[in-house]
Write a structure and sequence with these properties.
Elements lengths: L2 H13 L5 E12 L6 E12 L20 E13 L10 E13 L22 E5 L1
Parallel strand pairs: 2-5
Antiparallel strand pairs: 1-2, 3-4
Length: 134
């Protein structure tokens, strides 16, 4: 093995977390309520990207601290609230959603993140669409 290859491999293993591709990304959320006349398309930012993880197949051979299943998650965020148009008076027409300011690779926190990837997930409108630029 060449010295350059070994040095590159050691560097990437050591600093892989800081060089990961986890960053805020533009995303459109489609929100609708059964009672309301319109679907709202909201432009926001979410955390998305690649984080260095270690295979847990060798968990019997490795220390617990050597096993990490990191995900791209929020470092800093705030919540924005949008008004869904066309709702009757008896319906709450507001929808709050997270806006990513910065991201990090870390453990998934179920207090504010959906840590389970669902196979069937719809993100489209079934009603006439209104665009919300926040």
């Amino acid at each position: 093995m060449s010295p350059f290859f070994v040095t590159s491999l050691l560097f990437s293993l050591t600093f892989g977390q800081t060089a990961s591709l986890c960053a805020p990304s533009e995303y459109i959320i489609h929100v609708e309520k059964r009672e309301c006349a319109y679907c709202l398309a909201i432009n926001t930012t979410i955390c998305a990207g690649f984080c260095m993880t270690r295979d847990s197949n060798g968990k019997k051979l490795l220390l617990k601290s050597a096993l990490s299943q990191n995900v791209c998650t929020y470092k800093e965020m705030f919540y924005q609230t949008a008004l869904i148009p066309g709702c009757p008076h008896h319906t709450i027409p507001y929808y709050s959603y997270p806006v990513a300011v910065s991201c990090k690779c870390g453990k998934c926190n179920t207090d504010y993140s959906d840590c389970v990837h669902e196979k069937v997930r719809t993100n489209y409108c079934t009603k006439p669409q209104k665009l919300c630029n926040m």
